[in-house]
Amino acid sequence: MIVLGVESSCDETGLALYDTEHGLLAHALHSQIAMHQEYGGVVPELASRDHVRRALPLLQEVMQKSGKHKQDIDAIAYTQGPGLAGALLVGASFACGLGMALNKPVLGVHHLEGHLLSPLLATPAPAFPFIALLVSGGHTQLMRVDGVGQYQLLGETLDDAAGEAFDKSAKLLGLDYPGGPAISAMAERGQTGVHLFPRPMLHSKDFNFSFSGLKTAVLTVVKKSESPLSQTDKENIARGFVEAIVDVLVAKCVNAMKHTGLKRLVIAGGVGANRQLREALNAAASKKRFAVYYPELQFCTDNGAMIAFAGAMRLKNNPALATTDYGFNVRPRWPLQELEPA
Ligand code: ATP
Ligand code: MG
Ligand code: FE
After folding, report:
1. Percent of the chain, pLDDT > 90?
2. Which residues face 143 on adjacent strands?
3. Binding residues for Fe cation, per the UniProt record (predicted)?
4. What is the pTM for the complete model shown?
């Protein structure tokens, strides 16, 4: 079965073809980061319009790369939510219009299920059950995953998401949106121990997180400085920030592994691309004797491959999920816990 995936929940247009027999056939992506950068964040209306412009050329690119014809597609999976309403509507109408034209069934996919299952696209793929740390721009959640659609929330952030903390702290240091990768690169050159930032909720006996205080701590240091920050100052602050956030994320993962007794930890979402986080998790995993799995770097942030894959996994369990009723709705707010099991 060949599934076309369409992702458009935020500022990336992603299309991909996944074959349940042969794996990922092709994928194509356009990131709008450069367009939004001058505004310091995503402008929803600009995002929607750009998805309109990009969808068809990306479809053509995917078809060409895969060597398949549109008629070879068995079903079309699109991100139904959560995300920006206008951006989601573009992807949904594109997918449903294409489905109608080709006479192929469609199905809506949950964006976070896409992120969550993206490590299964890598080799070796983790087997169920596992603990998943989802660290993206909008979410920070620890989950127990027993199968496709079987997600038990263990804990989540009470305020900012990890990616949001990266981006906001980066902005305070004068870095462009989205500052996650940039502040992380800056931290590599910084000195450890110059700034000791708080580790929010490190010792709370649950699996929840809180990152807004960390951003405030960075702001306090920036404001306290009487002269403009030197490059070295910024590097040291970045270092302190990254160390604090990584410490908390790793500690909570280790606790979740211990609490559940599971032996596999899976990381998903954009912050999963972070090198310092991967290093610290790998060290903890070998010490505590569990295995840790990551998506390929290119599939940590938003992409079409994870949507095609999640759609294909759902359809494998239940082909009746795909419909030729092309009326659609999107769900900008859609907690993963409200998703039906596959
Ligand atoms: P959600 O999936 O929750 O709706 P999103 O789709 O915006 O949010 P992702 O695309 O998964 O989130 O990830 C984007 C986030 O990941 C941004 O906050 C970005 O700064 C962060 N990020 C990407 N690469 C890195 C990195 N190397 N280090 C730290 N953060 C990173
Ligand atoms: Mg994005
Ligand atoms: Fe995302």
Report:
1. 99
2. 132, 153
3. 111, 115, 302
4. 0.97
